[in-house]
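PROTEIN DESIGN WORKSHEET
SECTION A - STRUCTURE
LENGTH: 169
TOKENS:
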């Protein structure tokens, strides 16, 4: 694992707000699939299932941890899409802890392939162990989605909500 500045971790999705909340300037990034490989995988028809998801980001403060002690962001298909016809929906944690929240993004016919399945939403979800605010969680997941979803070549128009509107500070 390489020690890197937090602002560069996970493809640079961290703003000053999240950096202040995490309180670590440098982190270790564990092995992960990343945005491009995850998008390639999710574009395959065989990936349209409820499997646990591909790791986009896994950060820790320790050099050789058993599991990440800061946060972990994953992406997978979900059968429950955004509500009210919106292309993107923020879902705060209902567990009050470890499962820190998720967003669902409608992605139709990725890679221009018509796929008949109940899985039409990409779910990005996060586990964090630093008790981030819902606003920071929404911001990180939306920033990760903005890196992943364009690589999937979805055939629908996607607009992302303002994190301050879906999860006020």
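SECTION B - SEQUENCE
RESIDUE ASSIGNMENT:
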């Amino acid at each position: 694992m390489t020690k890197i500045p937090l602002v560069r971790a996970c493809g640079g999705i961290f703003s000053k707000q999240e950096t202040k909340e995490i309180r670590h300037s440098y982190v270790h990034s564990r092995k992960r699939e990343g945005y491009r490989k995850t998008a390639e995988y999710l574009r395959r028809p065989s990936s349209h299932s409820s499997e646990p998801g591909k790791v986009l980001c896994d950060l820790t403060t320790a050099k050789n941890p058993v599991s990440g002690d800061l946060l972990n962001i994953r992406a997978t298909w979900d059968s429950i899409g955004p509500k009210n016809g919106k292309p993107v929906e923020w879902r705060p944690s209902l567990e009050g802890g470890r499962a820190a929240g998720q967003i669902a993004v409608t992605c139709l016919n990725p890679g221009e392939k018509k796929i008949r399945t109940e899985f039409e939403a990409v779910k990005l979800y996060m586990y964090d162990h630093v008790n981030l605010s819902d606003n920071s969680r929404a911001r990180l997941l939306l920033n990760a989605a903005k890196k992943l979803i364009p690589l999937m070549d979805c055939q629908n128009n996607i607009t992302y909500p303002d994190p301050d509107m879906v999860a006020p500070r």
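SECTION C - NOTES
The chain has a mean pLDDT of 84.
The first strand starts at residue 2 and ends at 5.
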